[in-house]
From TrEMBL:
It comes from the Bacteria. This is Thioredoxin family protein. The lineage of its organism: Bacteria, Pseudomonadati, Bacteroidota, Flavobacteriia, Flavobacteriales. InterPro entries: Thioredoxin-like_sf.
Length: 197
């Protein structure tokens, strides 16, 4: 796995480079990922707007800031993502704000469809669900923990609504968006911190 992590990191993006890539592709009427369609492009555009908003509004809680400032060893947060993914658009800005608090955390983003071998080690219920974060010790490339694709409260909401509606539909997507808006990134911060040494 160490070699796979290292290979993935060589293909990774900083948060800013990832945002720039997504924005550039949108101007070319494209999205990241293997599949291109009008629907996927529309999701990418919507997600770019969401991330712009969250970059301005997400606040790292004082408790989380204190814990992050106490980290004394270097870690890499390696995150599998794609520009069309609604959950990633809600979560990556929070991860970025957290990583900015401490010099001991480096956020690296890799595209799922370009890193299928890595993705297939981190399936959720057999699927390539994203975003998926792998916390690595920077010196040893050992996995400390992993997290994703969404906070536990959002997971429970999606499961309930999938059972109610018989799958994913617009009502579910709207409810999930409202959950993220109401939560303001607090659950993401807490859950990542609980996994972090």
């Amino acid at each position: 796995m160490k070699q796979l992590y290292e290979q993935s990191i060589t293909k990774s993006y900083t948060y800013k480079a990832y945002r720039d890539l997504v924005d550039t592709l949108i101007t070319e009427s494209k999205s990241t990922g293997d599949t291109q369609s009008d629907e996927i492009l529309a999701y990418s555009k919507l997600n770019a707007q969401r991330m712009n908003r969250l970059d301005k509004t997400v606040v790292v809680t004082d408790e989380v800031k204190e814990s992050l400032k106490n980290i004394s060893k270097k870690y890499i947060w390696l995150v599998l993502s794609e520009g069309w993914c609604g959950d990633a658009a809600q979560i990556l800005p929070v991860m970025n704000k957290m990583a900015e608090v401490t010099p001991f955390v480096e956020l690296k983003i890799v595209l799922r469809d370009e890193n299928k071998e890595l993705m297939d080690h981190y399936l959720t219920n057999g699927g390539r669900s994203i975003p998926k974060m792998i916390i690595l010790e920077a010196d040893t490339m050992e996995e400390v923990s992993n997290w994703g694709p969404r906070p536990s409260g959002a997971v429970a909401l999606v499961e309930d609504l999938k059972n109610k509606y018989g799958g994913i539909n617009e009502e579910l997507k709207t409810a999930l968006q409202k959950w993220y808006n109401d939560d303001k990134g607090v659950s993401i911060q807490k859950e990542i911190l609980e996994l972090h040494p």
